[in-house]
Structures are given as structure tokens and as C-alpha cells.
Amino acid sequence: MNLNCALDLKNNLIGILLAITLLPFSGCRSQSLSVNSTRGSDSTSSIGRTLPAWQKGYLDIHAINTGRGETTLCIFPDGTTMLVDAAGSLISPADAIPPPPQKPNGSISPGLAIANYTSHFIKSASGKLNYIMMSHFDPDHMGSMDSGLPMHVSNSFRMGGVTEVGAKIRFDKILDRDYPNYDYPNNKTSDPRIANYINFINWSKKAYNAKAEQFVAGRNDQIVLKQDPAKYPDFEVRNIVSNGRVWTGSGTETINTLPAAEEVVAARAKENVFSIGFIMSYGKFNYFSGGDLQYNDRTDHPWKDIEAPVAKVVKSVDVMKANHHATANCNSKELLEKLAPQVVLVHNWRDIQPNPATISRMFDANNTCQIFTTNMSDANKVRLDTNLPKLKSTQGHIVVRVAPGGEEYSIYVLDDSNMEYKVKKVFGPYRSK
Asked: Burial of 403 by CB count in 10 Å (0-12 exposed, 13-18 middle, 19+ buried)?
């Protein structure tokens, strides 16, 4: 081969390599990029194997499916951990709106299932929970109260949902919307479930030296990195809303969007209206979580549309946890158009979830949206009609794994029928906005 031919061949090879390197990412690819050469099983080769452990620099967001409500585990880039909600509804499968089968099986309580899952995945991080956050006080987010629930060895509280998780996993701080008085919009301390929860908090203060705080809308210094904050200056949790008080987008300023407490009570506002919402950011990556925010009954009481003021201040995100399990009268057109999520995680657990019209609004806001649900009843598959084939997955734990720096992320669907946490499907990587 002469010199000119050799040079031509070299230039052609360089051109091909550059073309491959510069190919754009496709938001709907089903093949996952290996995020670290030392973790080869993080690609599609991980299918059928237990999800590899979290490593420093990654942000993990786990939608844990128990079949009895909503729970999210977050592992921040430095290993700080946060559990948002701890499902524990005791609803009967014979209910008029039945729940799906309990996961991993009926002999393991939702609280224990969450504790087992959490313990497994935080081993490589802090080994404990730095934060527990209660988005609001409904049983499918915090647990039910029943005289049949096991009593803790201290004899001070019964274990179900968050109280069972917290009894089994040490934690540093618990945040909710109404600590310490539990009197907004009216006094709730006579409710056996809230009284049990308060007893649990008091026990944790003594047993763990844990702290308890009210979640404050507008702040970005209440939930922070605890292990190595200086290494990840582009990570932030911004508190958006709680008790109807919404961040304005300026500093830590907030506005109250609800009328006087007496009017709120008279209008029979549901607990969902008071839900906590936040945006978690890591580099270019952004994630929105809003508990059970909704707009139900906004015709008669416009202030019940708590999503409306939130929509005015939030920004476009990559991943969104669907409000109120994507049932009816939530995830409004205005909010979805503002968030424009590329991925939506739906923690659905009842036969009416997700609502067909709600799913349609998600696709209207972003027709390339990738929607993942934790459960799907046969009846609802029929209701969803042509939207059903558009869903990326309809059963299992869902894990968002954000690569170091936040430039891209992948989605893993895990088998929820046992406690091996094996990967069923892999999607991505997706480029952060």
C-alpha cells in the first residue's frame, strides 16, 4: 500500500469514528449505554440479574411497588439517602375499587417490603436513612392504623407503613407538612393514625437521636447532601409547595394560596391539597415530585386547584412522579405543559389508576413521553385502549439511575414478585434537557 492510500484509509476511518461519536441520543432507545466500564451489567446484559448497587456520583430514584400505595427511595450522588412516603394501606382486595396483588406477596407487610428493599439498596450508600419525608397524611403514603398491627417492642406505637420502616431502619430526620402541632387546617392529634405516628416520632428521638421538622416551602437548604456536599455543588432539592404555600421562584419567598383554615375545613378539602412538592436537580437533570397534588372540585372552589399555582413556578423536568397516582382530576394540562416531562413514573395501586384522560394529557404535553407504571389491572388495560401500547412498562419497581454529572439517565424495571430485585427491562440512556 502506498503512502497516499494509507492516508486516505486513515482519514476515512477517522471520519467514520467521528460520525459514530456524534450520533444524537434517541429518547426512546431501548438499549442502555453501559454507564461505567467497571459495571458492565448496567447495560442490557443486566436483564435477569439483580440491579447493580449504587455507586458514588450516581443519583438513584426508586419507585418501590408494594401494591398498597406510594414509596420513593432516593440515593443522592454522595450517598445521602431519602425515603419519600412509605405505603401501608390496609384496604381489602374485596373493596369496591380493589387494589392489585400485594407485593412481593401477601405474607409480607408493605412496611416490611419497603424496609427490605431500602436496606438492600442503601448498603453501598449511607447504610441508613438520612431523611424520611411524608408528602401528606393519607394511608397509602404513610400507613394505616389498626389494632391488629404489631406493637413495637417499646410498646409505644404500632408498626405499619412509615412506623414499621422507621422501626427497622435507623434514620436521622423526618419531615412532614405539619410538625410539631398537627393542627392545620384542624387538629388531627385525636386521629389514632396521627397519634400513633406522633408516638413513633417521639420514640425515634430517643432511640436514634432523630430530628423532626416541618417541611418549609421555598427553601433549598432543608434537604441537603450530608456525606460530601462540596463534591457535588450542582445538586439541589428545592421545596416547592406544602400546606398550600407555594414558592414564588424568588429566593425563599412563598405565597399562601388557600383561604382561612375555617373555610378550608368547611369546604371539606382533602388531605391531597396539602401535599408536599419539590424539584430535585443534578446538573442538567431535574425531577419533580408532588405527592397527591390535584385540581379536584376547582369549579366550586378554585383554590382546590393546587396544581395551578405550582405550574406557575416549576420548570421543565426530565422525570416526573405523577401526581395522585395519575388518577382523575390531577396532572392538569397547565402543569404538564410547564413540566413537559420526558419520563413519567406512575405509582398506581388501584383499579381506577391511571385514568385514561390523565394519560392522554401526558402524551398531549409531550408526545414522546415515556410512561412507566408500577401496576396495571386487566380492567384498566381495556379502559386505556390505544394508550396502553404506548406505555413502556406496566408492572414492577421502577429505577431511574442518573449518571455522574447529570448528563444522562437510564430506566430499569425490576421484578416485584420477590426480593431479588432482578432487572426485567432497561430503557435509555436518555439525555437530560
From this structure: buried
